[in-house]
Amino acid sequence: MKFTKPATSIDDQIALLRRRGMVIDDEPSARHYLKQISYYRLRAYWLPFEVPAEDGDHAFRAGTNFEDVLSLYVFDRQLRLLVMDAIERVEVALRANWAHYMAMTHGPHGYLDTTHHKSAANHAKGLRELVKEIRRSNDTFVNHYERKYSDPDLPPIWMAAEIISFGQLSMWFENLKLRQDRQTIAKPFLLDEKALGSFVHHMSYIRNICAHHGRLWNKRFTVTMAVPKFPAKLPVAMRDADDRQLHNTLVMLDFLLSIIAPDTEWRERIVALIEGCPLADPASMGFPEAWQGRPAWRVER
Known about the structure:
The protein is mainly α. It has helices at 10-19, 27-36, 39-46, 66-106, 120-136, 140-148, 157-160, 166-174, 179-186, 193-211, 233-238, 247-260, 266-275, and strands at 50-52, 58-60. The mean pLDDT is 92.
């Protein structure tokens, strides 16, 4: 089928939204945001306000205001920033623990040894990706290593840990042959290695959504995380939550932050953000009923 839809001007976009029932009180403001954000990106945030139209076209629930759509967009943006803040801290801690353990156990360049990994093919692929990242890098420590040393060709693991992508870090961790290695790396996070591996894989997926400014708030995920069995408070906190939406991700990030940054007020900021936007129904993020009363979400008032 040939694509034949024409491009639509900002004026025509506003006319279309009004024809479908959206209230636009401040047209200059709406024009500004349609230009700076785009109709197509904002469309994801007015979908919850849509209702079937008699002619089969799109229509909006009576009273739907452009400002409501913008409020959801701003909420989602702030949510992404908070999630990225947490992921950054968890990611840095995981890199540090992986690199330190591997260096102390298998030596500074032990990560180059295929025998420490389950899949030789995945190990070779990881090394190829690392070489690409090093060639692209202009970091001082990489240049210093390449100028001063010729053997091994690649830098020690504590340098490599600063270069590889988070997705690659997930693969390196999962590909470790010995469960004892994975378990020891996971131990500081108070998780079983399987639970940590599952969450790290899921977290790299969530990170990509955030990095590309994608919708996070009511998205249904294709890469999910396993519900941990231990500590017991985690499965309790995740009971009755939708495992394809954001709730469980937030619970895990908060749990890990409580270990990595014990003084963090991240949970309080998440709760305040949700309570400050009534349009962002927590059920759309997979939150169970009466979630505020659960210990995982209780905050000091």
